[in-house]
């Protein structure tokens, strides 16, 4: 289903641990996600709290799904930050989808800070029962 995710995700986590959380606020991190198959659908959830749904962009090209979202600072321009721990900026994630998914029929919804994608499994990838036709009836051999 899912061919590959962001190869630098573990490196980002390690850098945040070593350099501290202050560096995480300066640079937006990758959007966390969960992915699983449920029946005939492949479901992906992305955590995007505080994101305006109008700023979310999704596109698919040759089975590569690109997700882009932007979170702006709620502080007015010119305000002096006292504490700024919530990351702002552009968040991106790229998923390499397998040939078994129908990328023409992706359904996307955004609720409570979670972007949910429902990607149907392609008809040709679904298991199907093969009917076996009977051959000649068994012949009796007399001796």
TrEMBL record:
Q: Which is a Pfam family this sequence falls into?
A: HSP20
Coiled coil regions, renumbered to chain: none
Where the record annotates domain SHSP, the positions are 24-135
What CDD domains does the record tag this protein with?
A: ACD_sHsps-like
**Which InterPro entries would you find in this protein's record?**
A-crystallin/Hsp20_dom, HSP20-like_chaperone, Small_HSP
Which superkingdom does the taxonomy of this entry point to? Bacteria
Transmembrane spans: none
Report the family membership: Belongs to the small heat shock protein (HSP20) family.
Protein name from the UniProt record: SHSP domain-containing protein
Organism of origin: Streptomyces pilosus
Q: What is the lineage of its organism?
A: Bacteria, Bacillati, Actinomycetota, Actinomycetes, Kitasatosporales
